[in-house]
Amino acid sequence: MTYADLQLELRDDIAIVRLTRAAKRNALSDALILALRHTFEALPSTVRAAVIDGDGPHFCAGLDLSELQERDAGEGLRHSRTWHAALDLVQSGPVPVIAALHGAVVGGGLELASACHIRVADSTTFYALPEGSRGIFVGGGGSVRIPKLIGTARMTDMMMTGRVYNAEEGERVGFAQYLVAEGTAFDKAIELAKRVAANAPLTNYALMHALPRISEQPADHGFFTEALMAGIAQSAPEAKERVKAFLDGRAAKVSKE
After folding, report:
1. In this predicted model, what pLDDT tens digit does every residue of 105-145 receive, in sequence order?
2. Cα–Cα distance between 121 and 170 in angstroms, integer?
3. How far is residue 220's CA from residue 203's CA, in Å, rounded to a whole number?
4. How many angstroms separate the CA atoms of 143 and 75, rounded?
5. Which candidate, 165, 170, 198, 200, places its Cα nearest to that of 185?
6. Closest CA to 120 of 24, 211, 188, 218
7. 3-class SS at 255?
8. Among the four 6, 117, 162, 176, which has the fewest Cβ within 10 Å?
């Protein structure tokens, strides 16, 4: 399917999902949220990793406030849940997702970025949660995902005071795992996606689906879940071949380079 504000490009086993509302700073409309959901639901089986990018100078400036409607409590709840369904497919869908961040990563844009598994920011990136000053609250999963990146106290400060983090500060507190020069976030994200796509699929699946659950389990439960996942992963034929290749000297060893 084709969408007015979203473009899907396939490069071998990498899917590039690009927000294309540059004139609106890639603000997330209801139609764009549905397009994200449908895109991740229907990724071809050949895709092994995905990159989310934003067209123009900004990744995503958040909710399109021009679409903000007066809703009763029930309607507001259901609207929030449509965002949850879409962003859950980013975080817990079929493949690992790398975000290429630049310019505004604000409000719903930060919620989208936080649903990705790896975030690469360039030096133009800035982060904000202006919902507090606008009398609203995050509704796209931000209250769950963002504190896991930066802590509850920092998120509270951002929403209460309107604090904005620049690229360097954001990388330091945990918004992004990589900080690169202006204009190079997408290239770095593609580089990482290729590396991720080369992993054994079952290992990537464990990192996407098991590791987040283990981190929230009591220690004894986590150890048991880890043991189950380790046993399953190492029993896969691909894992056995990769270990054999290493032992036979056919695989690269870890180095500082």
Report:
1. 999 999 999 999 999 999 999 999 998 888 889 999 999 99
2. 9
3. 22
4. 19
5. 170
6. 188
7. coil
8. 162
Catalytic positions: 111, 131
Q: Cα separations (Å) of 4 from 52, 94, 218, 226, 235?
A: 16, 24, 45, 43, 44
Using CA atoms, how far residue 109 sits from 54, 58, 85, 103, 181, in Å, is 10, 10, 16, 11, 21
The sign of the torsion formed by the CA atoms of 210, 122, 163, 84 equals: negative
**Whether 114 contacts 145, CB under 8 Å:** yes
Map out the domains of the chain as residue ranges: 6-197, 201-247
Residues paired with residue 101 on neighbouring β-strands, in sequence order = 121
By C-alpha distance, which of 82, 65, 212 is closest to 144? Answer: 212
pLDDT digits (tens, 9 = 90+) for 43-98: 999 999 999 999 999 999 998 877 776 778 898 899 999 999 999 999 999 999 99
Which has the closest alpha carbon to 122: 97, 148, 104, 146? 104
Give the phi and the psi of residue 128 in degrees, each rounded to 5. Answer: -155, 155
Greatest alpha-carbon pair distance for the chain in Å reads: 65
Number of C-beta neighbours around residue 144 at 10 A? 14
Tell me the fold of 6-197.
2-enoyl-CoA Hydratase; Chain A, domain 1 (3.90.226)
Three-state DSSP state, 99? strand
CB count in 10 Å sphere of residue 51: 28
Choices 3.40.50.2000, 1.10.12.10, 3.40.1170.60, 3.30.390.80: CATH for 201-247: 1.10.12.10
Pairwise CA distance, residues 188 & 131, whole Å: 30
- Single-letter residue type at 51: V
